[in-house]
Specification:
mainly alpha, 196 residues
Length: 196
């Protein structure tokens, strides 16, 4: 029996991330993954055991490459005004869309799909979104415009901003008009003028 060829598992997993990001967890078939990762079926099962096992590894990579850098932007103390961090973060997403990046966010896409019926995947997605919520809350805690809010109110607002983030990413992936996405960001300014 022929032995499956050796391959760089880190490189293959990174390629799998691109497949899942493009097609989504449910729509990424085994042939899609094998083709994208450039590995044989035997090598796949030897290294990953299952599609779900591979996806969990992909989510760990995405957490490090996308979620944590986003949280770092929102937590960047070198930008003293936390609300400015938040608006810069959303503008960065908008710039990416304007330049043709319509992939959205792997976490957001998964959150909007049926994969969340799997408890393990759901936990990983909720953990990533909670990190985003925490990043928004850190930024709000450093926002002079929101200094009069209670901590509970800032937590509530951080949840609202997380939902705005998810919605923006999903709409960007759905090919929503750029003007609509831009207006949704402009609408965030109303959250910066909350009554004291």
């Amino acid at each position: 029996m022929a032995r499956p060829r050796e391959f760089d598992i880190d490189e293959a997993t990174q390629k799998a991330l691109e497949v899942f990001w493009s097609k989504g967890y449910e729509n990424a078939s085994l042939p899609d993954l094998l083709d994208g990762m450039e590995i044989a079926r035997g090598s796949f099962y030897k290294a990953y055991d299952s599609k779900k096992s591979l996806f969990m590894k992909v989510l760990e990579i995405y957490d490090q490459e996308a979620v944590m850098p986003a949280v770092a932007i929102l937590s960047d103390a070198e930008v003293p005004d936390g609300w400015r961090r938040i608006m810069s973060f959303f503008q960065l997403i908008l710039s990416g869309v304007k330049n043709g990046d319509r992939r959205g966010c792997l976490v957001c896409t998964t959150a909007a799909g049926p994969a969340l019926h799997d408890p393990e995947i759901a936990r990983a997605i909720h953990s990533a979104l909670d990190k985003m919520r925490g990043g928004f809350e850190v930024a709000l805690n450093a926002s002079p415009q929101h200094a009069n809010l209670t901590q509970t109110e800032r937590t509530d607002l951080s949840n609202t901003l997380t939902m705005q983030y998810v919605g923006l990413r999903v709409l960007a992936r759905s090919q929503a008009p750029f003007g609509t996405l831009k207006q949704s960001i402009s609408g965030l300014t109303t959250l910066n003028t909350l009554p004291s």
